[in-house]
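check this one:
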Amino acid sequence: MKRISNRTWQLITIGLIIVGVLVLAVSGQLKRIIGTAIDPLVGAQTWFSSRVEGLINFFTIPRDVTTLMEQNTALQNEVSRLQSEVLNLQQQLVETNILYALLDFARENPENQYKAASVIGKDPSPFMNYIIIDHGSDDGIFKGMPVVTEQGLVGSIDAVTASAARVKLITDPNSTVNIRLQKSREEAQIRGSVTGDISLEMVSPSIELTEGDLVFTSGLGGSYPPEILIGQIVSPQFRENELFQTASIQPSVDFENLRAVLVITNFKPVDISPLIPTTIP
């Protein structure tokens, strides 16, 4: 009998292993055996990876947080700077629009000569009766000169220094303006008040006062040139046994938001008060 060689036994062993593996694979046991053998290795690898990652984060995260905080601060500063620039540009745009409006008004009314001035001060009381402008006698500004905007009549120069002037507004209780009504062409007077309201006075009961009727300067009295818009009539009133009618005037000028004005420099006001006879009691 022939003796089986070692090589033959190796081949038989390999064959049996292959057959065994195939049997285990077909039966589903091979996957379980491999999982059982590999699980400890996977667990060890996971543990090692988590420790390495934690070590890396320990040294890198603080530096990243500091960098992020610095970047955040820089971005906040940049946002603040841009917001400031936007506000400045909006302010410049508003001022430019105001100057263009005043320039257009001056061009449309060439019969007068104008000096533009910025408002640098206002009456601190809630009932604003004066403003301060940044032009004075050095700029050819003198007491009594009318002050307007593209919206209408503002008031007149009340006091002057070399580089600034005070403007008494038509809302001042001591301010009286001779006016003309657009529709009826009738003449009357308006007067300011301590509350800043403007009232229409000295209107004959025979004249029909119409809500919304425009009010212009008449030129009488020598204080203002004619045909400057003042505002419009609101709330006309007439009471029996009264000699005159009254009404409130809504001014066309937004006194709360005055930023720039025009001074009419070629108009010379005339004081006619010495020529008005006084009543002897």
About this structure: The helical segments are 6-27, 29-108. The chain has two domains: 12-108, 114-271. The chain has a mean pLDDT of 80.
